[in-house]
Amino acid sequence: MNIEPNTVNAARLVYKAMQVGESPLNDGDYRRMLSLYRADEKFAEQVNDICTGMELTLLDVSERGLVVAPASANSRFALKLGDIRVTKSPEQRAALALAHLAVSAVCFPTTDQLDDDTYSSPPVAASACRDTLMSIARRLKESESLSDELPKEVVAGYTYINSLPVVTPDAQRASPNSLTGLVTLALQSMRTYGLLRLDRASEEDEDSAYTPTYRLRVQLRELTLKKLYAIAQAAAVNEGQKPDL
Length: 245
What we know:
Number of helices: 10
Strand order of the largest sheet: 3-5-4
Structural class: mainly alpha
Radius of gyration: 19 Å
Shape: elongated
Helix content: 40-55%
Strand content: 5-15%
Order of helices and strands: HHHEEHHEHHHEEHH
Largest sheet: 3 strands, antiparallel
Number of domains: 2
Distance between the termini: 57 Å
Oligomer: single chain
């Protein structure tokens, strides 16, 4: 199929970028439209204009695909933590945001790994993400001087995390009422939105393993709150250096 540099195909390229399951690796039209974007300045302008009109930001273009993100929190495509219905309070929502950060830091525990497009993160265990979340909450609590530099909601989040048990006995599904449940919710959400792939499922949530996608790498590199992510990376490194018991 020939791909012409027109508005319809420009819109189709943006559409494919927004689909979690779409990849140029198994979609010839997607590959050809990406090639056209890089080769045809007019077509690239059309794609960029469509992104602007849809309140999207174009973060990256490569052979791995087009990576877009909501241009603001008011974008129709912006995911709000309140959209995850199992969280009921501002404290739980802030804690869930920190859980997302913990998962990301375990996937990319150093800045060099985050910036290196050739780096392939090995599968990460849910238990490692949980332990890193605990470490982040402790570090934030011990560094009260950081409170003026971080969003106020973060304080409520790490305070809530420090009050949680590791697991909730007899819990039937993941919930924000335990550290394991909180991390499981974050992992499930990130998988739904194409930021993680499930590599190994387990009846015990903490034994499941996930691999980050290229989309997660780009979004972390371009959008993450740098100060808070640096704290998360330090926590992930320290947790990874603990000896096995």
